[in-house]
Automatic annotation (TrEMBL):
Pfam families, sorted: AMP-binding
Highest classification ranks of the organism: Bacteria, Bacillati, Actinomycetota, Actinomycetes, Micrococcales
Domain AMP-dependent synthetase/ligase: 261-340
Top-level taxon of origin: Bacteria
Chain spans, region Disordered: 1-21, 98-117
InterPro entries, per the entry: AMP-dep_synth/lig_dom, ANL_N_sf, CapK_Type1_Caps_Biosynth
Protein name from the UniProt record: AMP-binding protein
Amino acid sequence: MPTTESSPVPDPALTGYTPMGSVGLTDAERWPTLDDDGHARLAALRAHPDAPVWVHATGDRLTAADEPALAAAEHGPTDADWVAGLIARVHGSVPAYRRAQREGRSGPGSDLSELPTVTRQDLVDDVASYVPVDVPLDRVLEGSSSGSTGAALNVPLHPASVAADLVLLQRLVAATGAVWESDPGRLGLANVIDQRTAFTYASAMTAFRRPAGAPAPLMARVNLSGWADPDSRDRFLVAMDPQVLSTATLPLLRLLDLDLDLHPVAVVSGATDLPTAVRDAVAARWGCPVLDLYGLRETGPVAVSTDGRGHVLVARRVHVEILDASGGPVPDGTRGEIVVTVDENPYLPLLRYRTGDHAALVRDVRGTVLVGLEGRAPVLFRAADGTPRPSIDATQLLQAYGLAAYHLHQGADGSVHLRALPLRGLGLDPRAAADAVARWLGRPVGLTVLDDVGGLGPGKPRRFSVDV
């Protein structure tokens, strides 16, 4: 069985990636609504002779009580004035806003523009202040976000809001004219990554909208570098023939290079910028639509581009402002920071959340559109032996060694330097993090230890840069 195989963890700090080392639930607890046929198909997927080593097991945790919320997610918001309702609600239930009301800084009747913006650091410092006190916490799922500086943030998520993202994805794929229906002969979705170490798992999508009696599609998170035998990897992907590929720019390029006999109905790119050339390459190879989805772990999906001509806000409870460096509004068509208000996750309603990303906002027949979106760019480092190494591997290492923020740079001559801000009070040695990067790249790594995040420079700090 692939789940019982062992694989070496490439660095002693990455113990969380030990295969099945953190599994604590039964399959019945992971998928309370999955029928016997679904469990049997899932077991067959896990036991496929060419399957990767499954490092983790996870399920959607949905119950029958979540169905009304998922059904509502099929159609988008119906309340045109949901922002005002959200402002009123948080002043009665969210500690940060209850405190603001007591101190006279804002209240349930305040205009959105009167409220202070919220930063990622606010959530890192005290995320509990932004969690409503009247929401039962017995179903909290934990999502992790690495952020632009590398400071990890644990985000409380609700199973229904996570599943609603899948329902939204179905709507977005359908809007392109592509047909994505339950097909037990294929993998419904493959989340494709390409990195040294990663969580991989097989799962079932019980939230997938389908006719009564149709089976729940299966999905898998797979790591292109996670197979000992590349031929086995290729056989698995071709046999599963995923209907939708969810990925990012660098693993997508690798998948295109493999030249496998795949027939996706759609490709969804997220996490990093999608160059036009890569979009065109997908269209040429597979002839399917490409959805460039913009969002954050904290906010969920915000906007989508299907043609490279701007990102259109998705039809859900999400509102966007564009602000200048001082926090003031800018006219439509002027670049500034993207600030998001969203009411999709009952555990974390956000008002005026500063993303650190930049774009201009325009309004046309498509709706509200973010133009010239500047998000996170993919970065490749070069090891001493000449092989490319994706920056996600460095993210895992540097977070595992307890850095609050960092910037890793490689010069044109191949030299590497790490500027590191350690987590306060934990007594961790940034030199150990630099040494881990040195082992990863096979190169010496210079180190500068910072006292505060301001040492990373103004604006949204970038974690990685290369001159190679």
